[in-house]
Design goal:
- With 406 residues, the chain is α/β, with parallel strands linked by helices.
- The protein folds into three domains: 2-73, NAD(P)-binding Rossmann-like Domain (Rossmann fold, 3-Layer(aba) Sandwich), CATH 3.40.50; 83-273, Mur-like, catalytic domain (UDP-N-acetylmuramoyl-L-alanine:D-glutamate ligase); 282-403, Protein-Tyrosine Phosphatase, Chain A (Alpha-Beta Complex).
- 29% of the residues lie in helices and 26% in strands.
- The chain is built from twelve helices and 23 strands.
- It has helices at 8-21, 40-44, 62-65, 74-82, 99-107, 140-150, 187-194, 218-221, 248-263, 301-315, 339-349, 382-392; strands spanning 2-6, 25-29, 50-53, 71-73, 90-94, 114-118, 121-125, 129-132, 154-158, 169-172, 179-180, 185-186, 200-203, 214-217, 222-225, 228-233, 236-241, 282-286, 289-293, 320-326, 353-357, 377-379, 397-403.
- The protein has an eight-stranded mixed sheet, sandwiched between helices. Strands 18-19-23-20-21-22 form a six-stranded mixed sheet, sandwiched between helices.
- Helix 5 (99-107) crosses helix 9.
- The longest helix is centred in the middle third of the chain and has 16 residues, at 248-263.
Length: 406
Amino acid sequence: MHILVLDTIHGGKAIGEAFAARGDRVDCVDVYRGKSSTDVKTALAGNYDLVVAPVHLDPDHPLLKDSKTPVISHHEAVRQLLTGNIPEPMIEITGARGKTTTAHALASLMGRKGVLHTSTGTYLFPEKKLLYQSSITPGSVLAAARMARDIQGWLIVEESLGITCLGTLGIITSNGDYFFAAGKKSALISKVVSAKDCAYLLLAENIHADHAGRVVHLEDVARCKGTECTLTLGKKTFRFSNPLLALPGYHTSLLLAAVAAMMLGIDPSPLSSFSAIPGRMSLSYERGLLIVDNANSGTNLETTLEAARYARVTSGKEEITLVIGQEEGDGAVCEGFAPDQIRAAIDQIHPVHVIRVGTIPVPGTLEHTMPEPLISAYFATLKEAYDTALRMTGTGSMVLAVKTWR
Protein backbone atom coordinates (compact mmCIF):
# COMPACT_ATOMS: atom_id res chain seq x y z
CA MET A 1 0.00 0.00 0.00
CA HIS A 2 1.01 3.60 -0.52
CA ILE A 3 0.22 5.37 2.77
CA LEU A 4 0.23 9.06 3.66
CA VAL A 5 0.88 9.73 7.35
CA LEU A 6 0.14 13.22 8.65
CA ASP A 7 1.77 14.94 11.65
CA THR A 8 5.28 13.67 12.24
CA ILE A 9 5.77 15.46 15.57
CA HIS A 10 2.88 13.82 17.46
CA GLY A 11 3.63 10.16 16.87
CA GLY A 12 3.27 10.11 13.09
CA LYS A 13 6.95 9.38 12.53
CA ALA A 14 6.76 6.17 14.59
CA ILE A 15 3.57 5.12 12.81
CA GLY A 16 5.11 5.77 9.41
CA GLU A 17 8.20 3.75 10.32
CA ALA A 18 6.01 0.86 11.49
CA PHE A 19 4.07 0.80 8.20
CA ALA A 20 7.33 0.96 6.24
CA ALA A 21 8.76 -1.92 8.31
CA ARG A 22 5.90 -4.16 7.22
CA GLY A 23 6.59 -3.34 3.57
CA ASP A 24 4.33 -0.39 2.80
CA ARG A 25 5.42 2.66 0.85
CA VAL A 26 5.05 5.66 3.16
CA ASP A 27 5.10 9.45 2.82
CA CYS A 28 5.04 11.53 6.00
CA VAL A 29 3.99 15.19 6.19
CA ASP A 30 4.80 17.55 9.05
CA VAL A 31 1.48 19.41 8.88
CA TYR A 32 2.27 21.80 11.75
CA ARG A 33 5.85 22.94 11.14
CA GLY A 34 6.28 22.12 7.46
CA LYS A 35 9.72 20.57 8.01
CA SER A 36 9.19 17.18 6.35
CA SER A 37 10.72 16.14 3.03
CA THR A 38 7.19 15.65 1.67
CA ASP A 39 5.23 18.90 1.88
CA VAL A 40 1.48 19.51 1.63
CA LYS A 41 1.63 20.52 -2.04
CA THR A 42 3.49 17.34 -3.00
CA ALA A 43 1.13 15.16 -0.98
CA LEU A 44 -1.91 16.77 -2.62
CA ALA A 45 -0.55 15.71 -5.99
CA GLY A 46 0.13 12.12 -4.86
CA ASN A 47 -1.99 8.99 -5.16
CA TYR A 48 -2.49 7.10 -1.90
CA ASP A 49 -4.34 4.01 -0.75
CA LEU A 50 -4.70 5.26 2.81
CA VAL A 51 -4.35 8.50 4.77
CA VAL A 52 -3.45 8.37 8.48
CA ALA A 53 -4.29 11.58 10.36
CA PRO A 54 -4.28 12.57 14.06
CA VAL A 55 -7.69 13.24 15.55
CA HIS A 56 -6.57 16.75 16.55
CA LEU A 57 -5.90 17.90 12.98
CA ASP A 58 -8.39 20.43 11.58
CA PRO A 59 -10.85 18.33 9.49
CA ASP A 60 -10.82 21.14 6.92
CA HIS A 61 -7.08 20.77 6.33
CA PRO A 62 -6.57 20.42 2.53
CA LEU A 63 -5.16 16.91 2.87
CA LEU A 64 -8.34 15.82 4.66
CA LYS A 65 -11.11 18.00 3.27
CA ASP A 66 -10.35 17.24 -0.37
CA SER A 67 -9.21 13.65 0.11
CA LYS A 68 -10.95 10.92 -1.90
CA THR A 69 -8.77 8.35 -0.14
CA PRO A 70 -9.92 6.47 3.00
CA VAL A 71 -8.78 8.25 6.17
CA ILE A 72 -8.08 6.59 9.52
CA SER A 73 -6.85 8.09 12.80
CA HIS A 74 -3.48 7.50 14.46
CA HIS A 75 -5.36 5.40 17.02
CA GLU A 76 -6.85 3.21 14.28
CA ALA A 77 -3.46 2.91 12.58
CA VAL A 78 -1.83 1.65 15.79
CA ARG A 79 -4.68 -0.82 16.20
CA GLN A 80 -4.04 -2.09 12.69
CA LEU A 81 -0.29 -2.33 13.24
CA LEU A 82 -0.49 -4.18 16.56
CA THR A 83 -3.49 -6.47 16.07
CA GLY A 84 -2.61 -10.06 16.96
CA ASN A 85 0.62 -9.05 18.67
CA ILE A 86 -0.28 -7.30 21.91
CA PRO A 87 0.80 -7.76 25.55
CA GLU A 88 -1.49 -9.54 27.99
CA PRO A 89 -3.13 -7.85 29.75
CA MET A 90 -3.09 -4.44 28.07
CA ILE A 91 -4.98 -1.54 29.68
CA GLU A 92 -5.54 1.75 27.84
CA ILE A 93 -6.45 4.95 29.70
CA THR A 94 -7.75 8.24 28.30
CA GLY A 95 -9.67 11.23 29.68
CA ALA A 96 -9.44 14.97 30.30
CA ARG A 97 -8.17 14.48 33.88
CA GLY A 98 -6.81 11.73 36.07
CA LYS A 99 -5.15 9.56 33.42
CA THR A 100 -1.68 9.53 34.95
CA THR A 101 -2.80 8.98 38.53
CA THR A 102 -5.14 6.16 37.48
CA ALA A 103 -2.35 4.52 35.50
CA HIS A 104 0.21 4.71 38.32
CA ALA A 105 -2.30 3.49 40.91
CA LEU A 106 -3.30 0.50 38.78
CA ALA A 107 0.33 -0.33 37.98
CA SER A 108 1.07 -0.45 41.71
CA LEU A 109 -1.39 -3.37 42.00
CA MET A 110 -0.24 -5.48 39.05
CA GLY A 111 2.37 -7.44 41.01
CA ARG A 112 4.44 -9.03 38.27
CA LYS A 113 6.64 -7.54 35.55
CA GLY A 114 5.21 -5.09 33.08
CA VAL A 115 5.52 -1.69 31.39
CA LEU A 116 3.77 1.53 32.41
CA HIS A 117 3.66 4.33 29.84
CA THR A 118 2.37 7.73 31.01
CA SER A 119 3.11 11.44 30.59
CA THR A 120 5.52 11.13 33.54
CA GLY A 121 7.59 8.57 31.64
CA THR A 122 7.82 4.92 30.64
CA TYR A 123 8.64 2.59 33.52
CA LEU A 124 9.68 -1.02 33.97
CA PHE A 125 7.80 -2.77 36.80
CA PRO A 126 8.02 -4.03 39.48
CA GLU A 127 11.30 -2.08 39.77
CA LYS A 128 9.57 1.21 38.85
CA LYS A 129 12.64 1.98 36.79
CA LEU A 130 12.27 5.01 34.51
CA LEU A 131 13.30 3.91 31.01
CA TYR A 132 12.59 7.02 28.95
CA GLN A 133 10.11 9.84 28.44
CA SER A 134 7.94 10.35 25.39
CA SER A 135 4.53 11.70 24.48
CA ILE A 136 1.22 9.93 25.13
CA THR A 137 0.22 10.08 21.47
CA PRO A 138 -1.02 6.79 19.96
CA GLY A 139 2.27 6.32 18.11
CA SER A 140 4.10 5.96 21.43
CA VAL A 141 2.07 2.82 22.17
CA LEU A 142 4.05 0.94 19.51
CA ALA A 143 7.36 1.02 21.38
CA ALA A 144 5.75 0.45 24.78
CA ALA A 145 3.84 -2.60 23.48
CA ARG A 146 6.99 -4.04 21.92
CA MET A 147 8.85 -3.67 25.19
CA ALA A 148 6.06 -5.32 27.19
CA ARG A 149 5.91 -8.23 24.74
CA ASP A 150 9.68 -8.70 24.95
CA ILE A 151 9.48 -9.23 28.73
CA GLN A 152 6.16 -11.11 28.49
CA GLY A 153 4.62 -8.60 30.85
CA TRP A 154 1.52 -6.46 31.18
CA LEU A 155 1.11 -3.04 29.60
CA ILE A 156 -0.68 0.03 30.94
CA VAL A 157 -0.71 3.00 28.57
CA GLU A 158 -2.00 6.53 28.90
CA GLU A 159 -3.25 7.94 25.59
CA SER A 160 -4.45 11.35 24.47
CA LEU A 161 -7.85 11.90 22.85
CA GLY A 162 -8.92 8.27 22.70
CA ILE A 163 -7.73 4.67 22.75
CA THR A 164 -7.05 1.92 20.21
CA CYS A 165 -9.28 -0.71 21.89
CA LEU A 166 -6.56 -3.29 21.36
CA GLY A 167 -6.27 -4.31 24.96
CA THR A 168 -8.08 -6.17 27.69
CA LEU A 169 -9.63 -3.05 29.18
CA GLY A 170 -10.25 0.57 28.23
CA ILE A 171 -10.75 3.32 30.82
CA ILE A 172 -12.14 6.85 30.37
CA THR A 173 -11.24 8.79 33.50
CA SER A 174 -13.33 11.96 33.26
CA ASN A 175 -16.43 13.46 31.68
CA GLY A 176 -14.52 16.71 31.23
CA ASP A 177 -14.89 18.12 27.75
CA TYR A 178 -13.34 20.77 25.52
CA PHE A 179 -13.19 21.47 21.80
CA PHE A 180 -10.14 20.71 19.69
CA ALA A 181 -9.21 20.24 16.02
CA ALA A 182 -9.67 23.96 15.32
CA GLY A 183 -12.67 23.95 17.67
CA LYS A 184 -14.63 21.50 15.52
CA LYS A 185 -14.60 18.35 17.66
CA SER A 186 -15.65 17.44 21.20
CA ALA A 187 -12.88 15.73 23.15
CA LEU A 188 -15.29 13.65 25.23
CA ILE A 189 -17.30 12.45 22.24
CA SER A 190 -14.09 11.53 20.41
CA LYS A 191 -12.87 9.48 23.38
CA VAL A 192 -16.17 7.66 23.79
CA VAL A 193 -16.38 6.90 20.06
CA SER A 194 -12.80 5.60 20.05
CA ALA A 195 -13.78 3.09 22.76
CA LYS A 196 -16.66 1.55 20.82
CA ASP A 197 -14.80 -1.69 20.09
CA CYS A 198 -13.45 -2.32 23.60
CA ALA A 199 -14.19 -5.78 24.96
CA TYR A 200 -14.34 -4.26 28.46
CA LEU A 201 -14.77 -0.57 29.23
CA LEU A 202 -14.66 1.26 32.56
CA LEU A 203 -16.17 4.74 32.73
CA ALA A 204 -15.89 7.50 35.32
CA GLU A 205 -19.09 9.04 36.61
CA ASN A 206 -21.60 10.67 34.25
CA ILE A 207 -20.22 9.25 31.00
CA HIS A 208 -22.72 7.63 28.66
CA ALA A 209 -21.53 5.04 26.17
CA ASP A 210 -23.95 2.86 24.21
CA HIS A 211 -21.32 0.27 23.35
CA ALA A 212 -21.43 -3.46 22.87
CA GLY A 213 -19.43 -5.63 25.27
CA ARG A 214 -19.12 -5.16 29.00
CA VAL A 215 -19.32 -1.55 30.20
CA VAL A 216 -18.84 -0.80 33.90
CA HIS A 217 -19.88 2.60 35.31
CA LEU A 218 -17.93 3.71 38.36
CA GLU A 219 -21.01 5.01 40.17
CA ASP A 220 -22.57 1.54 40.01
CA VAL A 221 -19.63 -0.12 41.77
CA ALA A 222 -18.05 2.29 44.26
CA ARG A 223 -19.48 3.76 47.46
CA CYS A 224 -17.42 6.04 49.69
CA LYS A 225 -17.80 7.59 53.11
CA GLY A 226 -15.03 10.06 53.72
CA THR A 227 -11.76 8.33 52.94
CA GLU A 228 -13.16 4.78 53.17
CA CYS A 229 -14.60 3.07 50.10
CA THR A 230 -16.51 -0.12 49.40
CA LEU A 231 -16.41 -1.67 45.93
CA THR A 232 -18.87 -4.31 44.77
CA LEU A 233 -18.54 -5.94 41.37
CA GLY A 234 -20.60 -9.06 40.76
CA LYS A 235 -20.19 -11.28 43.80
CA LYS A 236 -16.92 -9.68 44.92
CA THR A 237 -16.64 -6.91 47.52
CA PHE A 238 -13.47 -5.12 48.57
CA ARG A 239 -12.78 -2.20 50.88
CA PHE A 240 -9.88 0.20 51.17
CA SER A 241 -9.12 3.59 52.68
CA ASN A 242 -6.58 6.26 51.82
CA PRO A 243 -6.22 9.91 52.96
CA LEU A 244 -5.77 10.89 49.30
CA LEU A 245 -9.43 10.03 48.69
CA ALA A 246 -10.23 13.37 50.34
CA LEU A 247 -8.62 15.13 47.35
CA PRO A 248 -10.83 15.46 44.25
CA GLY A 249 -7.76 14.96 42.05
CA TYR A 250 -7.14 11.52 43.57
CA HIS A 251 -10.63 10.36 44.53
CA THR A 252 -11.88 9.27 41.11
CA SER A 253 -8.49 8.00 39.94
CA LEU A 254 -8.01 5.71 42.94
CA LEU A 255 -11.54 4.35 42.56
CA LEU A 256 -11.04 3.71 38.85
CA ALA A 257 -7.77 1.89 39.56
CA ALA A 258 -9.49 -0.19 42.23
CA VAL A 259 -12.42 -1.18 40.00
CA ALA A 260 -10.09 -1.88 37.07
CA ALA A 261 -8.08 -4.19 39.32
CA MET A 262 -11.25 -6.05 40.27
CA MET A 263 -12.17 -6.43 36.60
CA LEU A 264 -8.72 -7.97 36.08
CA GLY A 265 -9.14 -10.32 39.06
CA ILE A 266 -6.74 -8.37 41.31
CA ASP A 267 -7.27 -7.36 44.95
CA PRO A 268 -7.34 -3.53 45.12
CA SER A 269 -6.85 -3.34 48.90
CA PRO A 270 -3.13 -2.39 48.69
CA LEU A 271 -4.25 1.02 47.37
CA SER A 272 -4.59 1.92 51.05
CA SER A 273 -0.84 2.58 51.01
CA PHE A 274 -0.66 4.37 47.64
CA SER A 275 1.09 7.74 47.95
CA ALA A 276 0.90 10.94 45.91
CA ILE A 277 2.74 11.12 42.58
CA PRO A 278 5.31 13.92 42.19
CA GLY A 279 3.64 16.79 40.34
CA ARG A 280 0.16 15.59 41.28
CA MET A 281 -0.56 17.17 44.65
CA SER A 282 2.56 15.72 46.23
CA LEU A 283 3.75 17.35 49.46
CA SER A 284 7.34 18.16 50.35
CA TYR A 285 9.24 20.53 52.61
CA GLU A 286 12.26 22.62 51.74
CA ARG A 287 13.87 25.07 54.17
CA GLY A 288 10.88 24.41 56.40
CA LEU A 289 8.47 25.59 53.72
CA LEU A 290 5.53 23.42 52.61
CA ILE A 291 5.41 22.87 48.84
CA VAL A 292 2.36 21.48 47.04
CA ASP A 293 3.53 20.28 43.63
CA ASN A 294 0.75 20.28 41.07
CA ALA A 295 2.83 21.09 37.97
CA ASN A 296 1.90 18.58 35.29
CA SER A 297 0.33 18.22 31.85
CA GLY A 298 -3.20 18.37 33.26
CA THR A 299 -2.84 21.51 35.38
CA ASN A 300 -5.83 23.84 35.03
CA LEU A 301 -7.96 26.26 37.04
CA GLU A 302 -9.77 23.53 38.97
CA THR A 303 -6.64 21.67 40.06
CA THR A 304 -4.86 24.93 40.94
CA LEU A 305 -7.67 25.97 43.29
CA GLU A 306 -7.62 22.48 44.79
CA ALA A 307 -3.85 22.70 45.33
CA ALA A 308 -4.21 26.06 47.10
CA ARG A 309 -6.91 24.71 49.43
CA TYR A 310 -4.74 21.68 50.18
CA ALA A 311 -1.75 23.92 50.94
CA ARG A 312 -3.71 26.09 53.38
CA VAL A 313 -5.29 23.15 55.19
CA THR A 314 -1.97 21.32 55.48
CA SER A 315 0.20 24.29 56.47
CA GLY A 316 -2.42 25.97 58.63
CA LYS A 317 -1.39 29.32 57.11
CA GLU A 318 -3.10 31.59 54.60
CA GLU A 319 0.03 32.93 52.88
CA ILE A 320 0.73 31.31 49.49
CA THR A 321 3.37 31.94 46.88
CA LEU A 322 1.81 30.80 43.60
CA VAL A 323 3.99 29.63 40.71
CA ILE A 324 1.61 29.48 37.75
CA GLY A 325 1.52 29.38 33.96
CA GLN A 326 2.58 27.19 31.06
CA GLU A 327 6.12 26.56 29.94
CA GLU A 328 6.74 28.07 26.51
CA GLY A 329 6.41 25.45 23.77
CA ASP A 330 5.23 22.92 26.34
CA GLY A 331 1.98 21.70 27.84
CA ALA A 332 -0.82 19.72 26.26
CA VAL A 333 -1.24 19.81 22.50
CA CYS A 334 -4.98 20.36 22.54
CA GLU A 335 -5.73 22.13 25.81
CA GLY A 336 -3.41 24.74 27.26
CA PHE A 337 -3.59 26.80 30.45
CA ALA A 338 -5.53 29.78 29.10
CA PRO A 339 -4.76 33.33 30.32
CA ASP A 340 -8.30 33.81 31.63
CA GLN A 341 -7.97 30.61 33.70
CA ILE A 342 -4.64 31.78 35.10
CA ARG A 343 -6.13 35.17 35.95
CA ALA A 344 -9.16 33.51 37.61
CA ALA A 345 -6.86 31.31 39.72
CA ILE A 346 -4.87 34.32 40.93
CA ASP A 347 -8.05 36.30 41.70
CA GLN A 348 -9.60 33.46 43.69
CA ILE A 349 -6.50 32.31 45.59
CA HIS A 350 -5.25 35.79 46.60
CA PRO A 351 -1.59 34.74 46.85
CA VAL A 352 1.03 36.90 48.54
CA HIS A 353 3.40 36.44 45.59
CA VAL A 354 2.80 35.31 42.00
CA ILE A 355 5.60 33.94 39.85
CA ARG A 356 4.46 33.59 36.24
CA VAL A 357 5.89 30.97 33.93
CA GLY A 358 5.64 31.49 30.17
CA THR A 359 6.09 34.23 27.63
CA ILE A 360 6.07 37.86 28.73
CA PRO A 361 2.62 39.24 27.89
CA VAL A 362 2.12 41.34 24.79
CA PRO A 363 0.73 44.86 25.34
CA GLY A 364 -3.04 44.93 24.95
CA THR A 365 -3.59 41.32 26.08
CA LEU A 366 -5.49 40.20 29.18
CA GLU A 367 -2.27 39.23 30.95
CA HIS A 368 -0.64 42.56 30.19
CA THR A 369 -3.51 44.43 31.85
CA MET A 370 -3.04 42.50 35.09
CA PRO A 371 -1.98 44.88 37.89
CA GLU A 372 1.81 44.94 38.06
CA PRO A 373 2.09 44.36 41.85
CA LEU A 374 0.22 41.09 41.36
CA ILE A 375 3.09 39.55 39.38
CA SER A 376 6.42 39.35 41.20
CA ALA A 377 8.41 37.95 38.28
CA TYR A 378 8.25 36.20 34.90
CA PHE A 379 10.32 33.16 33.92
CA ALA A 380 10.45 30.83 30.93
CA THR A 381 10.80 27.60 32.93
CA LEU A 382 9.41 25.98 36.05
CA LYS A 383 12.92 25.46 37.42
CA GLU A 384 13.78 29.19 37.29
CA ALA A 385 10.43 30.14 38.80
CA TYR A 386 10.76 27.55 41.57
CA ASP A 387 14.20 28.76 42.63
CA THR A 388 13.03 32.37 42.78
CA ALA A 389 9.81 31.52 44.63
CA LEU A 390 11.79 29.55 47.22
CA ARG A 391 14.04 32.55 47.90
CA MET A 392 11.06 34.91 48.01
CA THR A 393 8.80 32.95 50.34
CA GLY A 394 9.29 33.53 54.03
CA THR A 395 6.17 31.96 55.49
CA GLY A 396 3.10 29.98 54.53
CA SER A 397 3.36 27.61 51.59
CA MET A 398 4.30 27.43 47.93
CA VAL A 399 2.01 26.03 45.22
CA LEU A 400 3.38 24.89 41.85
CA ALA A 401 0.64 25.13 39.22
CA VAL A 402 2.49 25.11 35.91
CA LYS A 403 1.21 23.20 32.91
CA THR A 404 4.16 21.17 31.68
CA TRP A 405 5.05 17.63 30.64
CA ARG A 406 6.87 15.94 33.49
